[in-house]
Amino acid sequence: MPTGRVKWFSLEKGFGFIASDEGEDVYLAATSLPEGVSTIKPGTKLDFSVADGRRGPQALSVKIIDAPPSLAANNRINSDDLAAMIEDTIKILDKVGNSLRHGRHPSPVEAERLGKVLRGIAGQLEA
């Protein structure tokens, strides 16, 4: 199986590229990432198989060999600030829950903002 390192990956776009050790760029779709992995950092060493796709070589059966060290631990928010953010988020979620009980869904913009807040908090908790 070929190996290579992630050149870049965009969660928003749902794809990225791998610089294979053979020297070619290989398309990496989000659906090819290992189960439970939604995004991947540049520099991550991967083991993968290759198939010809409409965008050229495409990675399949991707396995993570070595991930670069996380910088998230160095960028952790102060515990008191994180606690306040969580408390504010609970209030927002309570409002959204009450609206849903009355048949009102958040607008796409509101839902996207809330999703970003929840992912940001999750990232801080996992760091």
UniProtKB/TrEMBL annotation:
<dbReference type="InterPro" id="IPR011129">
    <property type="entry name" value="CSD"/>
</dbReference>
<dbReference type="GO" id="GO:0003676">
    <property type="term" value="F:nucleic acid binding"/>
</dbReference>
<dbReference type="InterPro" id="IPR012340">
    <property type="entry name" value="NA-bd_OB-fold"/>
</dbReference>
<dbReference type="InterPro" id="IPR002059">
    <property type="entry name" value="CSP_DNA-bd"/>
</dbReference>
<dbReference type="Pfam" id="PF00313">
    <property type="entry name" value="CSD"/>
</dbReference>
<feature type="domain" description="CSD">
    <location>
        <begin position="1"/>
        <end position="64"/>
    </location>
</feature>
<protein>
    <submittedName>
        <fullName>Unannotated protein</fullName>
    </submittedName>
</protein>
